[in-house]
Specification:
The chain has helices at about 110-125, 130-140, 225-230, 235-245, 250-265, 275-285, 315-320, 340-345, 410-425, 435-445, 530, 535-545; strands at about 1-10, 60-70, 80-85, 90-95, 150, 150-155, 160-165, 170-175, 180, 185-190, 190-195, 195, 210-215, 220-225, 300-310, 360-370, 385-390, 395-400, 450, 455-460, 465-470, 475-480, 480-485, 490, 495, 500, 510-515, 525. With about 550 residues, it is of the alpha+beta class. It is globular.
Length: about 550
C-alpha cells in the first residue's frame, strides 16, 4: 500500500522576482569500476554525464578548521580526527568512541587511521569526480586497528554537496546568515551513535546515510563532531557569523576557531540548564541535575565557504533578495519539559523576515493518488493523507500493520491523525504554518489505539518546512533529476519511528524538523514507504522526464 503526493512549485503570477539562474542538476551516485563488499548497493548509481568534474565546476570550497581536544584526557591528541583536501574539494571528520579506553585502547587511533586512509584513497586514484561513499568504504576496509568512530565526508561536486555520514558528526548549511539545513543524526540510542569498526557491536558503511544537497556561491558549511553540535545551537552560530562579519573578519579559519572556542566554553557551563545535549537527555528521561548544561568533549570544526571559481561572479544581491530563510532550532531555555506548549512555541521560526501565505512568491500545485494494499479486509487500507492548497501544506501517514493482529484497524490512527492536522489548519488562523506545531497538537488530539508514521510539508516563502517521523518522506527533483531525499527514522530494519500513545510508541519530540530551499519548477514527490520501498529515484527520474520534461513540471 502506498500514498504519494506530487507537487509542482511555480511562481505566483501576481509577484515579480528577479530572474534566477538554474543550477545544472547534479546526481549523487555513479557506478564505478571498483570491487568492494558493497557493489550491490551502488549498482544503480546515475551516469557520469550529468555530473561536473573538479575542473569544470563553477564553485569551490575555501576551508578552515580548528580542533580542541577534551581537556583532562591522558591522550593529548584527543579522539577526533579530520582532513581537508583542496585539490579534491573534500573534507572529512571522525569522532573516536571513548569506551575503548576501558579496554586499554587509544580511543582516537581508529578515527585518525580512518581519516588518513580517506586521504590515501583520494590521492592514490586519479578522480575527476569524488564519490564520498566509495572513499569511506575503501578507507573502512583498510583500517585495521581496534576501535570505532563516527564519520562524515563531504565533497563539492558541481553545485551540490555530496555527503556520506555515519553517526552523530555532520554539518549545517548557512545562507544569508541563516541556517537552512542540518544533517540528521544516526544513533541506536541516546548518546550511542552509529559507529564504524570491526568489532561485533560496531557498524559498517552499509548503514551510512548518503545524500546530496544543492549549494550556492556565498553559502557557508559548518561541519563538526558532536562536541560542536552538543554544545551550540544553530542560532548561536548565526549570531557568531553576524558579529564576525560586522567586524570584517568573516573568513573560514576565523569562524572555525571562534565556533570551536564558543562550543568549548558552553561545554564547561553548567549554569544555563539547557543545551542541545541536555535537551536531548531530557527527551530520554534523564533528570536535569544529571544531564545539565553542556557536554565536555573533543571539538572539531571545519568551515567551508562556497565561492565562485575563477571566471565566475558572485552576485550576493540576487540571492539575498530572492531567498529568505529563518532558523527554527530553539534557543537556550530554562524550561525542562520539552513537550510543554511553551517549549513548542519557542521552536517556531522567527516571523521576522518570513513571508505570510499571501506574500509568498511561490506556490505548490498539488495532486495525489492512493492505492490500498490488495487482499486486506479493510478497503480503506492503512495510509492516510491530506492536502491544503490554501495553507500550502500536505501531510501523509502510514498506520503500522502490527495493530491488526490485536483486532485494531491499523489505519484508523493514521486517518484520525491526518484529519486532526487538517482541522487545526482550518480552525486556527495561521499566517505562517509551522508543521511541527501542527503535528504536536494533532498528536495530542488523536486518542484511538494504534500508531503511524507522519510527514508534514509546508511551503514557506521559498523553502519547504518539514516535520517527519518514521519512514514516510519525500524526494526533491530539479530539471528531472533527484537532488534531495529525506532520511528515514527507524529503530531497526522495518521498525520505523511511529507516533502513538502506547508505551512502545514514540511522540513528536523524536521528529526530524528541517527546511530546504526550493525554486520555481521544482517537483516534490512525497510518499509513504510503499512508494520508496518499491521505486528507485532513478526510475522516478525516467517517469518525470518522459511525462513532464526537465524544464517545468
Amino acid at each position: 500500500m502506498f500514498a504519494w503526493c506530487c507537487l509542482a512549485l511555480r511562481y505566483q503570477e501576481n509577484y515579480s522576482l528577479r530572474p534566477y539562474q538554474d543550477d545544472e542538476s547534479l546526481r549523487s551516485y555513479q557506478e564505478e569500476d571498483e570491487r568492494s563488499l558493497f557493489d550491490e548497493k551502488f549498482k544503480n548509481m546515475p551516469i557520469q554525464r550529468d555530473m561536473k568534474t573538479l575542473n569544470k565546476s563553477s564553485l569551490m570550497m575555501n576551508f578552515g578548521s580548528f580542533y580542541i581536544p577534551n581537556t583532562g584526557k591522558s591522550n593529548p591528541m584527543g579522539e577526533d580526527a579530520h582532513f581537508t583536501s583542496k585539490d579534491h574539494q573534500t573534507i572529512g571528520l571522525a569522532d573516536g568512541k571513548s569506551r575503548w579506553k576501558k579496554e586499554g585502547t587509544d580511543a582516537g587511533e581508529y578515527a585518525r587511521q580512518l581519516m588518513n586512509n580517506c586521504l590515501v584513497v583520494l590521492d592514490a586514484k586519479d578522480r575527476e569526480i569524488v564519490y564520498p561513499q566509495l572513499i569511506l568504504e575503501d578507507a573502512y576496509l583498510n583500517t585495521k586497528v581496534d576501535g570505532s568512530s563516527t564519520a562524515c565526508i563531504i565533497t563539492l561536486t558541481g553545485e551540490s554537496l555530496n555527503v556520506v555520514n555515519v553517526g552523530d558528526s555532520g554539518f549545517m548549511l548557512f545562507r544569508n546568515g541563516m541556517m537552512v539545513y542540518k544533517s540528521s543524526t544516526q544513533q541506536h540510542g541516546f548518546n550511542y551513535p552509529y559507529q564504524l569498526g570491526k568489532s561485533d557491536h560496531c557498524d559498517d558503511p552499509r548503514v551510512a546515510e548518503e545524500f546530496i544537497i544543492g549549494v550556492r556561491a556565498g553559502d557557508w558549511v559548518v561541519a563538526g563532531t558532536n562536541g560542536l553540535f552538543d554544545n551550540m545551537y544553530a542560532s548561536e552560530m548565526e549570531v557568531a557569523m553576524k558579529v564576525i562579519g560586522e567586524a570584517g573578519c568573516l573568513e573560514p579559519q576565523v569562524l572555525a576557531q571562534v565556533l570551536a572556542d564558543l562550543a568549548f566554553e558552553n561545554s564547561l557551563d553548567y549554569t544555563q540548564g539547557i543545551s542541545p545535549y541536555s535537551q536531548a537527555a531530557l527527551k530520554e528521561g534523564y533528570p536535569i541535575p544529571i544531564k545539565r548544561g553542556g557536554k565536555p568533549d573533543d571539538i572539531t570544526v571545519i568551515v567551508a565557504h562556497i565561492e565562485p571559481t575563477q571566471g565566475h561572479t558572485l552576485v550576493l544581491g540576487n540571492i539575498e533578495n530572492s531567498y529568505s530563510f529563518q532558523p527554527y532550532l530553539p534557543k537556550k531555555s530554562p524550561t525542562v519539559n520539552v513537550m510543554d506548549p511553551i517549549v513548542m512555541k519557542r521552536c517556531k521560526p522567527n516571523k521576522k523576515g518570513m513571508k505570510t501565505l499571501n506574500e509568498r512568491s511561490l506556490m505548490m500545485n498539488i495532486g495525489s493518488s492512493y492505492i490500498p494494499k490488495k487482499g486486506k479486509s479493510n478497503p480503506k487500507g492503512e495510509d492516510a493523507h491530506f492536502i491544503s492548497k490554501h495553507h500550502q501544506t500536505i501531510g501523509l501517514a502510514d498506520g503500522v500493520s502490527s495493530w491488526a493482529k490485536k483486532g485494531i484497524d491499523a489505519g484508523e490512527y493514521a486517518r484520525q491523525l491526518m484529519d486532526n492536522c487538517l482541522t487545526i489548519l482550518y480552525t486556527k488562523y495561521m499566517e505562517i504554518v509551522y508543521p511541527q506545531l501542527v503535528l504536536q497538537e494533532a498528536y495530542s488530539n488523536t486518542e484511538v489505539n494504534g500508531s503511524s508514521t507522519a510527514c508534514i510539508i509546508t511551503l514557506t516563502d521559498e523553502s519547504l518546512n518539514v516535520v517527519n517521523v518514521g519512514d514516510s518522506g519525500f524526494m526533491l527533483f530539479r530539471k528531472g533529476n533527484m537532488i534531495y531525499k529525506s532520511s528515514t527514522q527507524q529503530h531497526r530494519f522495518n521498525s520505523p519511528y511511529q507516533l502513538g500513545k502506547n508505551s512502545h510508541c514514540d511522540d513528536p519530540s523524536v521528529a526530524e524538523e528541517f527546511i530546504i530551499g526550493v525554486r520555481g519548477g521544482d517537483l516534490v514527490v512525497a510518499g509513504t514507504d510503499g512508494l520508496f520501498d518499491n521505486v528507485f529515484a532513478s526510475e522516478m527520474e525516467v517517469i518525470i522526464k518522459q511525462t513532464v520534461g526537465t524544464d517545468q513540471p
